[in-house]
Structures are given as structure tokens and as C-alpha cells.
Amino acid sequence: MAEAAHTFESDSDRVWNEICSLGLKTYVADLDTDGYTVIPPEIASPAGLSERLLEACLDVMERRTGVRPDPGAGHADLATPTPARARNSPVGNTASMLLLEDPVFEEALMNPVLLAMVTHLCGYNVVMSSMSCSFKGPSKTTFRLHTDTRLPSPLPTQALVCKGMYLLTDYSRDNGATVFIPGSHKWCRNPVGDETLVREAGNDRAVPVEAAAGSLVVFHGNTWHGAINRLAPGLRVSVHALMVRPIIRTREDLIGRVPQEVLDRNPARFAILAQQGLAGGTTALGDMAANVARAQKYISAFERESGVTLPVKDSS
Question: Exposed, middle or buried: residue 202 (CB in 10 Å: 0-12, 13-18, 19+)?
């Protein structure tokens, strides 16, 4: 049940108000304590979002490869140089650059539940670095523990990176679940040596995610995580939204590449999330002012619509 909302003045109070309104206080507490949280389908997947995401991901893979994956019985032998690579991979196959493939991916990015959680970690000027879908079939290979911050140790305490994972099929040990080391985000370092080994292979503190399709997993970029190999037939399917503070270079370059009709059908925050408020790099002095002006247009539109003042504006 959603908790009573109140009116606050600061941006930090504003996001807390959103968290309370959406009934997410327990999940934020888990996120702050353990470095990750699992939000159930009834909260995370409004209006059948996860089912529609699954169909869209299957459509994308079919368009790109000519083969439609079968989550119940198939294997992810798609879009790889050799089938053996997919079967031996700890992650299977990945369909990248999804945001502009179908409006449901825009909806997934704008899901208020996802936005409240990632804003809690990375602020209102957080941007999407990438959106991809993972198709993971049976294999014998575990995915070693790592962090998504991807900087040398020591890592900053404040999250520079976070991720939201929409689980589109059930997650369990036999299904090759993602695993986390609870509280590891507070250690502010990367795992080394045998610390990278997953569960039965070495690190017995790794906790597998056991959750139903439609759940949303959100985690801090410093949290140690990996995955167990899948034993069951069929595919584990999930959509991954990697989110970063704007000082971090994104995996996908969307600056100036999002069609106007996509921007027009979404709130102003969509443009910020889709990198349109970033000026980007340039090789010509004459382009710099134009890039900054274009970015500032989207920043100003978001600030007018939301009442939020972004902490950093690219005006260099």
C-alpha cells in the first residue's frame, strides 16, 4: 500500500516523497543496507510491463537474427560467432541498444518505481548509459563477482553507477540467478583473487536472487555481483538499464540521436535520461557553443516541468 506523501522543498526531500508515495521505503532500506533490493511484480511492473517487455525483446532478437528465442525450451544460440560461445558464456546472448526499438522500452525507462530508486542513488541528473536484454541458457560457467563502477579501488562511497534489472522470467538457482554479496557496496573496493568466485566455486556469501518474473532488481554500482550457471532448460531473460551520473561516459551515445517524435511523446525528464541534456565531446571549437545550447534547452525544459534544479549544468 502506498504511504502518505508530503510536500518538501529540497530535491533530496522530493525524491523521498516519491519513494513514500510509491510504497518503496522498505526497498530503499534494503538497498542502503545490502546494496541491492528486489521489488515485486505488483509494484515494479504496472499494466503488464514485464510481459510486454518480454515480447518486445523476443521481437528485437527475431528482427536482428531471424530466429525468435523460445524462453521455455530454447537456448540463446543467437547473434554470436559460434553456438559454443553462447553455451559456454556466463551471460548468454545480449541484445543491446534497445531504447529506440519499441515504445515499451521508453515506458520501462520512465517507470516511476525505477526512477525513484535510481534517483535515490544517483540524483535527478542521472542518465541512461545503456539498455540491453540478456538471454541466458544452460551452461557450466558462472559469472565472476565484480562491480559495475569499473574504477580502481578504492571506490567512491557515493554511487556513480547503478542498475535496474527487469526480470522477465522467474529467477532461481537452477535458472541461473544473479547473485549478490550483501553489504559489499560499503567496502568501496573491487573483489580480487578468490573473492571473485561465485558461491559453490568459492564465495559462500553470495546470495542468489529468488524472484518471480516481473520483479525489478536495483543495485548500487559498488555492490559485488555475478551469476550462477543455469541448470534448467530454457532461457533466463532480463532487461538491464545501466544508469550513471553525467560525469561518467555512457556505453551508448544517444546525444542528438533520439528522434523528435520520441521526445515529444515523453515527459521532459525522458530527454535528460536519454542523454539529451549532455553536451558531449567535440572536435571543432565552433561546435562547442551549439552543443551546450542544445543541452541547455533540454535541461531548462526539465527544470520548468519538474521544479527540480539540476546540480550541474554543462556550460563550459
Answer: middle
